[in-house]
Amino acid sequence: MSELTTSAVARSNVLNNPYVISELETHLALGGVSFEGETAFTKSQVAQILEITERTIDNYIASNGDELIKNGYRVIKGQALKNLRLAYVDETNFADISNKAPSLGIFSFRAVLNLAMLVTESERAKFIRSKMLDMVIDVIAQKTGGNTKYINQRDSDYLLTAYSEDVYRKQFTDALKHYLEMGNTKYGIYTNKIYKAIFCENAQEYKKILDLAKKDNVRDTMYSEVLQVIGSFENGLATQMKEKSEQLGRKLTPLELDELISQAENNAFNYPHIMMARSKMASRDLAFRDALHQKLEQYIQAVPQGDFEKFLGEKSRSLQEQLSAPETLAVLKRLKDR
Question: Which of 120, 205, 226, 257 would bridge 222 by S-S if both were Cys, CB 3.0 to 4.6 A apart?
Answer without folding.
Answer: 226
